[in-house]
Request: fold
Amino acid sequence: MLNISKDLVALAVVGLIAIFALSMPFKQVNAADWLMLQGTEPNAAAGRATVWGLVQPEAQYTDGSVLQSGTFNGKPALFNMIGPDATSRASFQLRRARFGVRGQGFPLDGKTNYYILAELGNNSITAGSESAVKLADASVTFNQIPYARVRIGQFKYPGSEEGLQSAAQRDFINYTSGAEQLLLERFFDKTENNLDRNVPVGAFRDIGGQLFDTQKVADNWFASYAIMLGNGNGINRADNNADKDLYFYAAAEQIYAGKGSQVDSMKWFAWHQVGKRNLDGRKHNRSRTGLGATFRKTKYRAAFEYFFADGVIYNGTIDGGRPADGAGFSVLTANKASAFYVHAGFMLLPNVQLDLRYDDLKRSTESATDERRFSTLTAGIQYFVNKKTRVVFNYEKRHASAPGLTGEQAVRVNKILDVLDDRMSMQVVAAF
Reply:
């Protein structure tokens, strides 16, 4: 059964933000927010086809410390390998290579938009696939109904800022531990001994329909809402049960200056999603809820987000081993987790930005045996070659522990977690 009290609280938070934002008189505008920027065209400016893309070559490095305990003692630790292939502790790779087309497909109807994006890079969308190209987005948006735009297809669901944010605009190379483990969903058929996912990761996307809009509600204030019904079964495939995922999102944003993805603003947001997953031939509840804020003004950037998970929780591999060495993935079906991150950034020079982020994850908190805690402090520097090209350097100080264990079991498991290495990475981000 769903935890009704938590679901109601989550919906109340989203609803209160929506009611506050939507209670003011509307003026239609194409405001700066991810709901509108990715898939909705301005009526007067869009053409039939705008070609665009993104290339992100990168290098990542860890010390490659091997496991010091457990079933795979002496073998490489999965968490010290570079994803998605997990075959090396240091690697150059093409993280993302995306090619897209967007616009108004019908000259007589400027209110109908389309958005298509293909992924050619080496990441969790394409890894393990027979095809080197995967469809990331394919949607049609109808803007005919005032205050109720409709989007149909495969696209990013309304949720966490980390998920909604464009890959071309992220300040950090890697996701937080919370987003990586609780939100970037992997799909399995069993709760234990899964040597691979049955499809690509969800990539913060779903297939379904969404009702949404952004409106100006006061001087420099904008309100956004979204309600989506989706399969909840990953991308590029049909659903595997009759139950659908529900997504709710609300945001209020004050614009200081600018437009588009680089707008100076203060935004508050909340979101909630709930659905079911098929594991071991049974249905299990899965819900995620979060709230946060972003700030950007002149030289300063800041953000925070808190979210919690209930039900199905990703639980890593057995003893930290790699699937290539026989370590299977596992999933818990009735547990809880929570995570948060705080980010501060400063433009030191017109083309140099400094960033610092701390993130924390408490996973599987309902079970002392399964509970794990992860924390990462990431220091970053970005060099902007021009408006669409930059070079990003990150250093991640990582730590993990099993606080609920005692005795010999605590010694054994913490020996595994103690070899979690720091990680260094460099990435070039080039958009066109």
